[in-house]
Amino acid sequence: MSANSQMRNPNIDSVRGLAVLGIFFINILFMGNSLEGYIPTIPAAASDVPLEVFSRLLLEGRFIGLFTMLFGVGLVIQYQRFGQVFPIKRRLKILMLFGLLHGIFIWPGDVLLSYGLSAMVAIRYLDAPLDHIHKRALQFLGFSAIVMLLLTQALPTEPLPSRLSPEYQASLAPWIGPYLGQVLQHLAMMLMMTLVMLPIALLWYILGMMLLGMYLYRSHFFNEGLTDAARIRLLLLALLLGAVDLTLYFSESRALVNLAEITVIFSAIPVSVLYADLIIRLCRGSETVLKPLQNVGKLALSLYILQSLLGIACFRYLFPDWLQSFDRIHYLITALTWAACQILLASWYLRCFKQGPLERLWRYLAFGRTQRATNTHGVNS
């Protein structure tokens, strides 16, 4: 075993691999119409309701929550490695450049730019006492919840247009039209998210989740997992918040449905931690038991961008008719198929190369030829 591989925590690689695979199950719904996402078919498929319940309980916000926590983990590990924040800031600036290019020219649902900007604030807590990090994480998450709840008051109260309506067709046209028009759409969304939504609400949620990741890592969670008592408490909390979210989402009031846009985000937090705990327990017997997930986790950045390239190519260029015909079961099957392909691709790639192409480019742009490629942890590795 090489020195580089000895540095890696297989639990973190596995959790990151699960997160990378899982986020596509929700992102795929926005690869075509990136503004409105999934609109039910006419008539709605019989599988839509059970799959919506499944999605809200086990998918939505769960894997992006893991992704965000792992970014905080990565910041701590990078700090332990470098001993100062300057190299971390250099890496974050390159990551933000990747995110900007990704969001404008490929897919506006990018998270890398927001993560990089938020991490510039999060690194202030790298030397903070553990209790202080935990306290600040809860405060940031609580504040973001309040702000998001207030923002739901500005959401429209009328139902979304049907897939066959002229309004929907008009909203869809720019996304499958000429590339320049798509870029302008991307740019408008990126400006709205970065200049408006991030400082008002998203920054505080992302910060809270990153600090939660820092807290869990420094508490040795990624080596030991949860205690039995903590696991039961989180499970009960997840069930309670999930029930509240489903009640709001399936209510007759559009105002309550709008509130569910927020509850689904925060009901995801305990589930995200439980997913990580499950992976850690599965890895406890053997470091290689989840090798396929570990391989995916080592190529997190490259596979994240590849997901966007594939989704955009399929839904906007190769098979735009999917946007008219796909219901939730089709999206689920497509995401499952691509998850299997990513597992096979990652396993093959790492037999031939030591580092992902974008991971290697990232390191080169941040440090040039002065440092040899070294495997490190975290989403920002």
Automatic annotation (TrEMBL):
UniProt feature coiled coil, ranges: none
Short name of any one Pfam family annotated for the protein: DUF418
Stretches that traverse the bilayer: 12-30, 61-79, 91-107, 137-155, 187-212, 232-250, 256-278, 299-319, 331-350
Domain DUF418 positions: 216-368
Record keywords: Membrane, Transmembrane, Transmembrane helix
Protein name per Swiss-Prot or TrEMBL: DUF418 domain-containing protein
Organism: Shewanella amazonensis (strain ATCC BAA-1098 / SB2B)
